[in-house]
Design goal:
Number of strands: 0
Shape: extended
Structural class: mainly alpha
Helix content: 40-55%
Largest sheet: none
């Protein structure tokens, strides 16, 4: 067997078929799955809740984090927002806005130096 020398040292640790899985707990649940399964929220309800959280001041977000009567998902999101705010990162905010409003439209401009036009044909005849 011809192996890559860069990963040869990993071969003894490679998972062998028939042995127990190294990742017994499986893939982590997504926020969408947690909100629907554990909080019984529809996607629309969770989006509204996220947008409402984003409208609070820093002091209000801190209060939500420390209030045991708040829903768990609100506390988790508030904690993430505070952590990112304190580190100067916009990652949590960007992720939550992408979740509620979708990714921003991206535009691509393609220019070519080819002088002849390119024609593409598609044959739809069934044979």
């Amino acid at each position: 067997m011809n192996t890559n020398p860069k990963i040869e040292h990993l071969q003894p640790h490679k998972w062998q078929k028939g042995h127990p899985s190294p990742n017994r707990s499986g893939r982590p649940k997504s926020l969408k799955k947690i909100l629907s399964d554990e909080c019984n929220l529809t996607p629309t309800q969770s989006n509204v809740a996220i947008l409402n959280l984003l409208m609070h001041t820093k002091c209000e977000i801190e209060d939500i984090c420390n209030d045991d009567t708040q829903p768990m998902f609100s506390r988790i999101i508030a904690k993430s927002l505070l952590k990112n705010y304190n580190s100067g990162s916009l990652y949590a905010l960007e992720s939550l806005l992408n979740r509620t409003h979708g990714m921003p439209r991206q535009q691509t401009d393609i220019t070519t130096t080819q002088e002849k036009p390119i024609f593409v044909s598609l044959d739809l005849d069934v044979r």
